[in-house]
Please model this.
Amino acid sequence: MTEPLVSVVIPCLDEERTIAACVASATAAIARLHATGEVIVVDNGSTDRSAELAAAAGARVVRHDVKGYGSALKRGIAEARGRYIVMGDADQTYDFGAIPDFVQLLQQGADLVMGSRLRGTIQRGAMPWLHRWVGTPFLTAVLNLLFNTRISDANCGLRGFSAAAIRTLNLRCNGMEFASEMVVKAAQRRLVIRETPIDYFVALPGRVPNLHTFRDGWRHLRFMLMLALKYVFLFPGLIMSCFGFGFSLLFLLQDVSVSHIPLGLSATMFVNALSFMGIQIALFGVYAIAFSTSQGFAEEDWISRSIKKYFRLEWGLAIGSSILLFSVVLGTFTIHLLMEISKPQAQVSIPVTKLAALCIFLFLLGLQIVFSSFYLSLFDLSKTLE
Ligand SMILES: Nc1nc2c(ncn2[C@@H]2O[C@H](COP(=O)(O)OP(=O)(O)OP(=O)(O)O)[C@@H](O)[C@H]2O)c(=O)[nH]1
Ligand SMILES: [Mg+2]
Model:
């Protein structure tokens, strides 16, 4: 059979009041395109007559065992035979009449076309105030910031994509995080993302939404943060440790005062602890990036590629042990100095104690690098076991 131009995939959970109309509207839009197409309804657990009514309206109904919005869409995408896929909800809140707009942009070279309700028309009452003015703009802004995209409605459920491009993304989420996963991975893969304004309509009275504002908003946010590991761990950790280490050196070389009060040992302790914490957090970032790319959660980027390319257990051990050795030598010298100074005066020398604190920091850093290197090499080992 030749490849149809477009497959429309509709996830459906108990939507018997609207599913037939959605299928009819999608079929009519395909006909208007004078193109070949198919409508696939994926049902994974409806207890009403949705499946039967969808089939009667002319859709290919696919039953799927694994529950969830993402799970239904993944199955629909796997089943689709079209060159382009348009996905949309079964609750008649989206107008499938917009399918030609999506197909046109895809034919012009887009890989993913996002519908934008915020740039289109939102029927009065279709979107709760909190979603329209807080949730959606906030989640969209976070997505744009973390993944360098320029879209206006991250949560829109009406989207089109090239079947070939979407299948390279290895989408995994079964829940509604699927919607974010698609855009994040498309951006990480540098697919061409475009958007088109669409209209958004009020659901039928009495429809119980599957979406729970705070729980699901948080799930999207958490999911995006988990895929932006460099911003969550690596960069804050590095900034923290540079800041701490810089001040530690400054306090060692100079007596610094704030409002005429000299900063003493506690300030040194604090900045050293800060550097150490920063290194810990940055290393968490390195482990997390190595883990998530090795498991296929996140797309590779220059950081994960560099970790893979440059990290060698032997190098880690060599660097860690050198820092350890250096801290022991410097530490011995410092202890010697401390003893010399406190012998005649029986009092602690603040500058030398600052040096001692730095030695402790370097010693712990060396240990941390040695053990982290062993830990990181585990991710490498998985390749040997395959
Ligand atoms: N097959 C399947 N479809 C689902 C599942 N959860 C939601 N859907 C469908 O996915 C679409 C989107 O769900 P909605 O409840 O409309 O979620 P939403 O559009 O994000 O939010 P609201 O419309 O505000 O509730 C609808 O067509 C649902 O029937 C599921 O677990 N399985
Ligand atoms: Mg909906």
Remarks:
- The radius of gyration is 29 Å.
- Residues 229-380 form one domain.
